[in-house]
Design goal:
The structure holds 2 protein chains of 2 kinds. Chain A is an alpha+beta fold. Chain A has a single domain (3-145), classed as Beta Polymerase, domain 2. In chain A, 45% of the residues lie in helices and 20% in strands. In chain A, the strands form 2 sheets. Chain A has a 7-stranded mixed β-sheet with strand order 3-4-5-2-1-9-8. In chain A, α1 (3-18) crosses α3 (50-62), α2 (26-32) runs antiparallel to α5 (122-132) and α5 (122-132) runs antiparallel to α7. The longest helix of chain A is centred in the N-terminal third of the chain and has 16 residues, at 3-18. Chain B has one domain. Helices cover 37% and strands 8% of the residues of chain B. Chain B has helices at residues 2-8, 17-27, and strands at residues 40-41, 47-48. In chain B, a hairpin with a 5-residue loop joins β1 and β2. Classes of the chains: A alpha+beta, B mainly alpha. The A-B interface holds A 1-5, 7-8, 27-28, 31-32, 34-40, 84-85, 110-113, 143, 146-147, 149-151, 153-154, 158-159 and B 4, 7-8, 11-12, 15, 19-20, 22-28, 31-41, 47, 49.
């Protein structure tokens, strides 16, 4: 297991320990769906409730990293710093109107070490990046779309 | 890997063969087998795995 996979395993195990339901989204979700892409952080989507805010505090303690900080006054998103890599926590929905419930309904479970992560579907990763529209998101769209097509072809269906 | 490439390539003729190989290698390599996917920024401004 690489240090990247170990980091992910530690985070997923800590999520389970504190009982925080989170969906892995963003580029790491793309990776866990098989795409050959790279990123600088881990994005998690959770529902914005007082209980979950409390659990996020417990998550940072469980990972022995700094308490959550708000990234920007323009966004509810918070970041956990001090670990091997930043963990961005997004609330309720992703760009493109992708709600937590909708993402979860199409998500898959990916085993990472002893724990399983809930991972957004590749189609949803693509849709969210397209809707976000930032250059770094748009730059990943071609390889993500190609991965989706190759995966469909591998499964015996026609390319999408 | 080669079998998968032979089988899939005709279904995605517009994908560059090198890109197809890269994608297949990634798709067929499960998590937990030593994959690297995080970039870390160094003080010098560069990035490392």
């Amino acid at each position: 297991m690489s240090s990247d996979e170990s980091f992910l395993q530690d985070v997923v195990a800590a999520l389970h320990r504190v009982g925080l339901e989170a969906i892995v989204v963003g580029t790491v979700a793309g990776v866990l769906n098989g795409a050959p892409v790279m990123t600088q952080d881990l994005d998690l989507l959770v529902r914005d409730t007082p209980k979950n805010r409390e659990k996020i505090g417990k998550l940072s303690a469980a990972l022995r990293i700094a308490p959550p900080v708000q990234v920007s006054e323009l966004s509810k998103a918070i970041t956990l710093l001090g670990g091997a890599l930043p963990i961005d926590i997004l609330f309720d929905a992703l760009p493109g109107g992708l709600t937590f419930e909708a993402l979860r309904s199409r998500s898959s479970r990916v085993q990472i070490g002893d724990s399983a992560a809930t991972v957004a579907a590749l189609a949803d990763v693509i849709a969210s990046k397209q809707a976000a529209g930032r250059p770094k998101d748009l730059a990943q769209l071609p390889i993500l779309r190609q991965t989706e097509r190759v995966r469909a072809a591998l499964k015996g269906g026609k390319s999408v | 890997m080669l079998e998968a490439r032979q089988r899939v390539a005709p279904l995605v003729p517009d994908i560059d063969p090198g890109d197809l190989l890269l994608i297949l290698q990634s798709l067929l390599r499960p998590i937990g087998t030593g994959r690297r996917f995080f970039l870390r920024r160094r003080a010098s401004g560069g990035y490392v795995f």
